[in-house]
Each structure stands twice: as structure tokens, then as C-alpha cells.
Amino acid sequence: MKGGHFAISSFLSGVRTADAKSMPEGNITLDQRAAETLGGATRFPTLALGSESGIHGGCLMSWTRSGTRVPPLSTPRELFRKLFVTDGAADIGASLDRLDLKGSILDAVQGDAKSLQRHLGQRDKEKLDEYFTSVRDVEKQIELRRKWAHVPKPDPKIAEPENKDFVSDLPVMYDLIALALQTDSTRIATFEIGGDFEASAFDLKSSYHALSHHGMREESIAALVKMERYQVEQFARFLAKLKSIEDGAGTLLDHSMVLFGSGMGNANSHTNSNLPIIFAGGGFKHGEHKAYPATGLGRQTLCNLYLSMLHRFGAEVKTFGTSTGTLTGLA
Fold this sequence. Notes:
The chain is 40% helix and 5% strand. The protein has two domains: 4-85 and 153-313, no CATH class; 88-152. The strands form two sheets. Strands 1-2 form a two-stranded parallel sheet. Strands 3-4 form a two-stranded antiparallel sheet. Helix 5 (166-182) packs parallel to helix 7. The chain has 331 residues and is mostly helical.
């Protein structure tokens, strides 16, 4: 895939937003496709986490089937309250009233739209179909919220965290993701570490984004390595935490697929091929480095890994994004 920064939003879909209309399932991302198999099994079908600031306008990690960006939760406190703070009876009642109102509005608007559909040309009908898809997404969300409205949220047995800065908050966010999985509040989470990751926290003058365009300067590369080593260390700590949590016959890591990577193979030259990917857990065989040809026989698209993950998750799908099959050599 080509597109530099503009292809980053395709990391979990394999499909650029501009190309979505030509694809059977649009640019739906891996997390959202997996969530479709769960129904209302968990309070939160997915959790999207990341920053809403930064040079490229914030988190662009998750996209629905209708091509709508899923806005992320940005701070530990916001995530903690969503997961573990149960509303009082009055708040629940008010929330249900709002859901009823939204449902009534959707019914009315959808009725008008169906009446209008008979008088439209093909292109306008396609746009209207996109609208209906969005309406169905909202209807599912309303139904799910009603289902869980009176179910108490789990007690995490930890105090509500404070918000500091994105760098300091990184391990806290990982801890909360682990708790969300452990309490079965969700089974799917995405977490984007964006270009606004503060270099000042490492006593560096240049920004994370500027350092990624290092121009092969040794001092810039050294600074970038310092920042990204911290990110990898926190990811390793997250894996260790999942491995320490007993989950029936095994650990939470045994029963969780964990993907860590980037939508750029080389940010300095804006290339979107040969992506660095770490894949852990899920009962697969690990502990080795797999290198696939960038072109020709044996070339593998990242969507092949995603298709393998969806199969392990229980989704009955034949393709995903630009997949050509499941990932070869994955056991």
C-alpha cells in the first residue's frame, strides 16, 4: 500500500478511506469486524483508545462498516469511569429517556428516507444506503446500552487514576486495558500511540513526529530510539501482566491475541511496506522472526494475518480487506 501518512488510518483495515467504496466491506477495521461476531456478549463491544490531538488530527485507528471513524477515549480517568463507575438510578433513568428519544428520532427519519428512496437516482440511492447502514449501527448501540443499563459495572479494586500526560499515562492505560479484558467488560481493544507522544518527557527538544523524519542523522535516530524503547518496554510490561493473570485453563495472554506495530515501515521515507509487527498470545506458536518477501512469490499482505486472527476469534469470514488467504507459516 502507498500513501505515506494518509495510509496510516488503514493500518487495521488494509483499505484506504479513498478506496473504501470499491471494497465489499468498505474500510471496516479488524476490531470492528471482530466485534460484529460478539453481539451483546460484553458491555463494550470494543474500546478505542488514543489521543485526539497531534499533527495529523488525532486517532484514526478504528473505522466502522459505514466508514465512520470511532472516536477514542483519551485519558486514564475517562477510560476508568467508562469501565467501572456505575451511574445512579436517576442517571440511568435519564439515560434511558435519552435512548428512547434517539430511537424515536431514528424511526421518524428512517421512515422519511425510505419514502424518498423511490425518487432517487442510482448514485443518490448508494448514498442513502450508506446512511441506512449508519442508522443500523446507531440502533445496535442503543439496543446494547438498554441491555446493560441496569447491570452494575465490576469493581476494579483500584482507585480512580489521575490524568498526567500521554507518556506517563501509557502504563496506566495498558493496566486498564488488562482490567477491561480480565473483567470481560470487553474482548477487543485498540490503542494508538500518535505523533503527539511528548518528546519533552524524555528531555528531548524535537517532537516525536519530527524525530521520525530523522534524515539519517545519528543524534535524531538516537533520540527516536530512546522514545520508542520506552513504548516497547511498556508493551512488554503489558504482555507480562496478561501472562500473570490466570484465566481458566491458562493465562489471559494464552486466550488473547495481541498485535503491536506501525502503519509505516520507514517513517523517514514515508513507506507503508515491510511493516514492523509483533504478534503475541492467542495460542499460536511464537518466539521466532518471520520475514516475508515484499514482492513476488511468497509476498504476504498484513490482512492475511488479520484473516487468521478473525478465524481464531471465531468469525466465519472468507476474506478481510485485501487478504489473499490466511497467513502462511502461522501455527
